[in-house]
Amino acid sequence: MKAKTIKQVLRKRCDAWLATIEDQALRKDLEQGVIITGGCIASMLLREPIQDFDVYFRNKDLAARAALYYAGRFSKTSEMVPVIKVLVLEDRVRLVVQSAGVAGVDGSVANRYYESDTDGVAAAEYVKSQLDEAEQTEKDQGKYQPVFLSANAITLSNKLQLVIRFFGEPDEIHANYDFAHCLSYWTSWDNQLVLRPAALEALLARELRYIGSRYPLCSIIRTRKFIARGWTINAGQYLKMCYQLNALDLTNLHVLEDQLTGVDTAYFMQMIDIMRKVTEQGQIIDDTYLAEVVDRLF
User: What is the pLDDT at residue 272?
Assistant: First the structure.
């Protein structure tokens, strides 16, 4: 797809979403503070199906206001949905359902986050079921309705995902990214599409090129899905990821759980839950115990 067409698609998608926001002050500010980046642009360049459009916010205030707006709208969808809190912390915005968790449009609540098991269904399948249900009721409720909430993001119908975990200018957001092919972006305030040369080169070669990330463990695991799609990666890229990973203390459960952010595998969150309970009981977790838990779950 040509750059001009991609820009038109993103402009139209953003405008259609913003038109559904009833808070006029929020809508006006979002018009000047939205960034769309990630896999959707790569998919359009490759003429592949778009999984979703990842929307980021230019600053923490916008991310918090958007989270509050959709948390309020989501709470109205079902009496079964518990109180949803928006925490504005020093370095992030976080949604909390009950003590921690996710919620679906049907009112069900899971125990953990996006990556967790939801009533025995893998997270990706659960989100799809929620989106399918929302699309069936769109005629009554309208488009771009909140259908799934997690600590890090809000999924709307019509393939839009509002990421509240990270915010800032494009370079700040991309500091959390791992592979070069996802670095192109579009900005709402000037309707500009930036196609980074490194991203285009990686896309043409279908080669994973690691640019450094705060989440190297997640990056290593994520390579599996790209390889399954026919992408390649050389040993040097794995060395870069492992080198960064070596600086982290994965024996700290908080670090380990944070490093698994974005990994769509329910078993990992079950593993964290098991290890947390064992630690609370005073048991020391070593390599052998971790291997036993992983082998049992997987």
Answer: 84
| pLDDT of 99 | 43
E-assigned strand segments in 53-145: 53-57, 84-88, 93-97, 103-104
Task: Give the model's pLDDT for residue 115.
Answer: 33
* CB distance 186 to 35 below 8 Å: yes
Hey, is 209 helix, strand or coil? coil
Residues sharing a CB contact under 8 Å with residue 255, sequence separation 6 or more, in sequence order? 248, 249
**Residue 124 backbone phi and psi in degrees, to 5:** -60, -40
The answer to whether 40 and 50 have CB atoms below 8 angstroms apart is yes
∠10-11-17 over CA atoms, to 5°? 90
Pairing of strands 146-149, 103-104: antiparallel
Amino acid type, 48: E
Mean pLDDT by 10 residues, the chain (298 residues): 93 96 96 95 92 94 95 70 80 74 48 34 48 50 81 89 93 91 96 96 96 90 92 97 95 86 69 86 86 86
Give CA–CA dist 85/126, Å, rounded. 22
HSE-up of residue 49 (Cα within 13 Å, Cβ side): 3
pTM for the whole structure: 0.79
Measure Cα distances from 234 to 61, 183, 210, 239 in Å: 40, 20, 10, 9
